[in-house]
Amino acid sequence: MFRWRRSRGNSADTIGSSSRATRPRRTRNWPGRTAVESTIVTAELTHPRTYVVRTLGCQMNVHDSERMSGLLEDAGYVSAETAGTGSLMAQADGADVVVINTCAVRENASDRLYGNLGQLASLKRDRPGLQIAVGGCLAQQDRAGIVARAPWVDVVFGTHNLDVLPALLERARHNDEAQVEIEESLKVFPSTLPTRRESAYAAWVSISVGCNNTCTFCIVPHLRGKERDRRPGDVLAEVGAVVAEGALEVTLLGQNVNSYGVGFGDRGAFAKLLRACGRIEGLERVRFTSPHPAAFTDDVIDAMADTPNIMPSLHMPLQSGSDAILRAMRRSYRSERFLGILERVRDRMPEAAITTDIIVGFPGETEADFRATLDVVEASRFASAFTFQYSQRPGTPAADLPDQVPADVVAERYGRLQALQERISAEENAAQVGRTVEVLLAESEGRKDVATRRLSGRAADNRLVHVGVPDGVANLPEDARPRPGDLVTAVVTDSAPHHLLADSGLAGGRFEVRRTRSGDAWAARRRAAATAASNTTGEPATSASRAVGLGMPTVRRA
Fold it and tell me: Considering the chain, what percentage of its residues have pLDDT values greater than 90?
């Protein structure tokens, strides 16, 4: 399907022998493609090229996708978001470029990618000018294998070189050949790149990339490299910039946020960073994810409790409640330490909602090990939990461990864990009834909001809240109603395992709206998007709908 071409200046013929991958040249003769269709149209386009970025995976991938969008918009592309916001095909149908940002953590990651690529193949047969790019962790792992399996893909790039995406797209168009470029280590810190943020009112800010841990189930260190910390001044400058653009909430991101500072010799740097965020005017909510129990120290708990804009929510990955399994996972803490952290957090912040990650069926897990996990879950009283059935990931030490647990046993245990956590979540949410909550309204938290005439968003503790809207507010002109980014104060009237209802306003009770500059920013972005959609002159979208610039240098590659 394609043949190898030696890259200039590269003495290696195969992927992986140097930091810069060779690029496969191929004939575009996949099924249904004709020679005429393979011709590159070089005429000037009447309209700017449009793009869509599809994200698979974690918050770090969401943040990386914002960088990819920013890079494309900086290069003159325009978002095709108005063409469709549902399925990939609906979005891709209005785009000239489709970027899939992949995850490699779970077993079905590969199936999801190639399922998406299979859908796009038929679209590309009808629209040969469509370009498809694959980035992220699975791209870093599979490399040129993606093009071998899906030869209609135009660009493959890794986790360490997001900045090359626009150049690779143009090179692929010019040369009519797939461009595969994978770096073995980080060359450009993603946070220095332009960004088009998904939200006008909430922002992700990366404080570090990579991971120094050696958990036996995890492929992330192999794909994202060793931990690299940003300097505190750079982090705070970005936080200040997004707040100036209208953001009311910031989430600090890192594979292990609480180990931040080790890279520049300050083990107390994360607690100091949290306190510094408390001094940023206009920043009302600060969250972070994800910490590691082994490195979680009391100075961080104190900083959370003492800093008013640090939210009383904490995601603390447990993974297993069995000390034997934790040891096999190379998780350098034990269940007693984990429970001690939760106790100290709740002592300082009784209102804190704590969530977690749990893996069921790790190799060697016995019924006694699993019961130990159930015991820790019962004692922890998590508000919610992300639960996973263990899957073998090639390249991880756990994949080769003996005593792999049979799939039917894993599924049965998984069902028991889910039932337990469902009960606990229901009980913990029921205890919130009668509380007054301030909800940061969101754009797409509730699928039934229109039918129920509710608004949805997150309380300070990050619980999902659906808020009933009184007639007097619902009947206001559209521009006077509460907007995403505004804050609504109401009383919780009912609960379910995964959400709260705050319908106090429907009975004449408390319902207060605070219009914010974040709501203003959301409205401005919406107006700009509408203007861009109705623009038939071929002019680019207005700056208000373009990438959020942070005043940081943009690194380009030819």
Answer: 61
